[in-house]
Amino acid sequence: MASLKDVQTKIGAVKKTSQITNAMNMVAASKLRGAQQKMEDFRPYTEKFNQAMGNLSSNMESGQFPLMEVRDVQAVELVLVTSDRGLCGSFNSNIFKLAEKLIREYEAEGKKVTIVCVGKKGNAYFRKTGKVRKSYTDIMGSFQMFNARAIAQDVAANFLAGDADKVHILYGKFMSVAVQKPAEEVLLPVQPEAGEAVEAEAGSAAGDYIYEPSPTEIMDVLLPLYMNVMIYHAMLETGASEHAARMTAMDNATRACKDMIADLTLLYNKARQAGITAELMDIVGGAEALKG
Amino acid sequence: MAEKIKLEVVTPKGSVISEDVDIVTAPGFAGEFGVLANHAPFLSTIKIGSLRYKQDGNEEELMVSGGFCEVSNNKITFLVESAERGAEIDVDRALKAKERAEKRILEAAQKKENVDRVRAEAALQRALARLRISNTEH
Q: What gap in Å lies between CA A279 and CA A284, rounded to an integer?
């Protein structure tokens, strides 16, 4: 049986750990609020943007824009949006699993796969495979739209140079505080969601829009912007998901600590009681011997 | 009372304005344009500059930076990178940004780097537009 002192130190250690996890839980909760707010602020922009894109592209043939060109797929690029920090449960590994599944599928078809990592964790995980083309780290903390722009420009240039024929973006989709799901979307070639609702609404008016400058020139401006929006959106979602995942993970950890402390306290009390009993036995034994 | 048009200004940081107004004047690709109620469907890119609108005789002005705008169904929607009212503009910051941008343009001109130059020029335009609008407010 463990000695009293051992158990006592262990209880102390677990208590300290639970303090840390509890603090991390609270930090994650407050950061989550900020991230969620940012995400909600951005939502109207994306909605309006997709609507306009849908309207515009329904009047145009997609073939004339390099960024919309559907090519025979030889090389695929994955933009992996993960968190910069760990200790958030299986959040990042879920994204990795999805990425690995995609990589396996594409490689089985004999296609080349490269990865662009956004966030430290993705880079750390895939670095050894030699597939990482570029990585952006330490930007998940306080990202801005212009971070997304740099990434979008790089990915677009790579696509236009013909080094990738299809680009997927993978991120942690924020479903709710309790649920985050790894998600995958096609970033390039651009396929605007000409949703049916949008189509129906636009159907009557879309034909006679006045464009300034010409539709093609507008598209030239909108397409890169569209990529910005997609990437920024993925970053926001991952950011919020990361904090939510960490909150849950830390909550579980704190609870596990409490259970452990309860078990250890029981063990401690047992050991203490055993000590007292042994001492009593000694005294009684001694007294008996004296009597004898 | 004259008919009104619904004005919406949306940035990545959220919706800035959503109001019924009389007239909107905006810096379009081919110069300033004005939009009244029941305008024909219209789509234009937006340059850095000032967006003005009139509501019950009061004129308001905002600084907007690049994006685009869409008019349809008596509604005008601006999707821009940023939009600020005169009072919200941080004059000190804009002044600093102006100096920085001017310096960068000079540097870029010496090194003949086009990318830097284009970015610095956009920054300068933004700073100038901010300063101009914040001046007219006071």
A: 9
DSSP state of B67: E
SS3 A53: helix
Residue numbers of A between 38 and 57 with CB closer than 8 Å to B: 38, 40-42, 44-45, 48-49, 52, 55-56
Nearest CA in chain A to B46: A212
Tell me how far apart the alpha carbons of residues A228 and A145 are, in angstroms, rounded to a whole number.
Answer: 7
Measured CA angle at A86 (ends A258, A175), to 5 deg: 85
Residue in the block written with tokens 């695929």: A76
Q: What is the reported pTM? A: 0.82
SS3 A72: coil
Cα A47–chain centre separation: 22
Structure tokens belonging to residue A234: 């993925």
Listed residue (A79, A70, A44) closest to A190, CA to CA: A70
Interchain pair B13, A41: CB under 8 A: yes
Active-site residue identified among A88, A103, A198, A230: A88
The one-letter amino acid at B69: C
Cα–Cα nearest to A168, from A140, A189, A191, A187: A187
User: B31-76: per-residue pLDDT in tens?
Assistant: 899 999 888 888 889 988 889 999 888 888 888 988 889 888 899 9
Residue environment code for A177-210, b if the CB has 16+ CB neighbours within 10 A, otherwise e: beebebbbeebbbbebebeeebeebbeeebeebe
CA A62, distance to chain mean position in Å, is 32
Contact B111, B134 (CB under 8 A): no
Q: Which domains does chain A have, with CATH numbers?
A: 22-249 (3.40.1380.10)
**Model pLDDT for residues A56-111, shown as the tens digit of each residue:** 777 666 567 788 888 888 899 999 999 988 888 889 999 999 999 999 999 999 89
Across the interface, whether the CB atoms of B40 and A42 are under 8 A apart is answered: no
Domains of chain B: 5-86 (2.60.15.10), 90-136 (1.20.5)
